[in-house]
UniProtKB/TrEMBL annotation:
Short name of any one Pfam family annotated for the protein: Hydrolase
Organism classification: Bacteria, Pseudomonadati, Bacteroidota, Flavobacteriia, Flavobacteriales
GO biological process: carbohydrate metabolic process
Domain of life: Bacteria
Name used for this protein in its record: Beta-phosphoglucomutase
Gene Ontology molecular function: beta-phosphoglucomutase activity; magnesium ion binding; sugar-phosphatase activity
Entry keyword annotation includes Acetylation: no
Protein family (similarity comment): Belongs to the HAD-like hydrolase superfamily. CbbY/CbbZ/Gph/YieH family.
Cofactor binding note: Binds 2 magnesium ions per subunit.
Site feature Important for catalytic activity and assists the phosphoryl transfer reaction to Asp8 by balancing charge and orienting the reacting groups, where: S113, K144
Length: 220
């Protein structure tokens, strides 16, 4: 059976979620707005624009459009300064062996990310060549939890949504996968990602044979 495996990037393939957090935290501090870990969970998977809107709303702040653009640019500059130092050692546990397993099994692999920096990061950690399609923040109009990003990915790899499996570390992304009619697999904390069909702390916690059972349509 041919399936489509769609990976989120930040927090699933690489641990860039911490860099987004650091950059947003600095920006919030500069604005005199504090935000909690729980609020940070709500920023995961969410586009740059939506993230800044949320932070401003939490701090009860309104700013000019020009200031908004400036802050987004500043956040991305800081984020990119962390990315510049990244290498393959920052690939999360077992990610590459999962990609190799799927590739060798002739499965379809796509990226479904909100980030406009997705290609830069994938090439930085030398994983770009595994992906048959990349759908990212430069292609998508509606941010997660809208299913657009995953539906575009399934189209690009020509696999029906019901035969697609999504790996996600964010609440918004799990909701997007569920709405797309795909199997959702949370990577991270099961309390946070309780809406997912399955949750593993990371890929190394995924039982042997789990991926094979998905490919063979076996119940888990
Ligand atoms: C998502 C991250 O993958 O991409 C978010 O989880 C981030 O934290 C979003 O805001 C947009 O990323 P970028 O790189 O375009 O600012
Ligand atoms: Mg993510």
């Amino acid at each position: 059976h041919k399936k489509g495996f769609i990976f989120d990037l930040d927090g699933v393939i690489v641990d860039t979620a911490k860099y987004h957090f650091m950059a947003w935290k600095q920006l919030s501090k500069d604005l005199g707005i504090s935000f909690s870990e729980a609020q940070n969970e709500q920023l995961k998977g969410v586009s740059r624009v939506k993230s800044l809107e949320k932070i401003l709303a939490w701090g009860n702040k309104t700013i000019s459009d020009e200031m908004f653009e400036n802050l987004m640019a500043k956040k991305n500059e800081e984020y990119l300064s962390y990315i510049a130092k990244m290498d393959a050692s920052e690939i999360l546990p077992e990610v590459e062996s999962v990609l190799v397993f799927l590739k060798e099994g002739n499965q379809k692999i796509a990226l479904g990310s909100a980030s406009k920096n997705a290609r830069t990061i994938l090439s930085k950690v030398k994983l770009l060549h595994y992906f048959e399609a990349i759908v990212d923040g430069t292609n998508v109009k509606n941010a997660k939890p809208d299913p657009e990003v995953f539906l575009l990915a399934s189209e690009a790899i020509k696999i029906n949504p019901e035969d697609c499996i999504v790996f996600e570390d964010s609440i918004a992304g799990i909701q997007a996968a569920n709405t797309a009619g795909m199997l959702s697999i949370g990577i991270g904390n099961e309390k946070v990602l309780h809406e997912a069909d399955f949750v593993f702390q990371n890929f190394s916690k995924m039982p042997n044979g789990f991926l094979m059972s998905l490919i063979n349509n076996e119940p888990n």
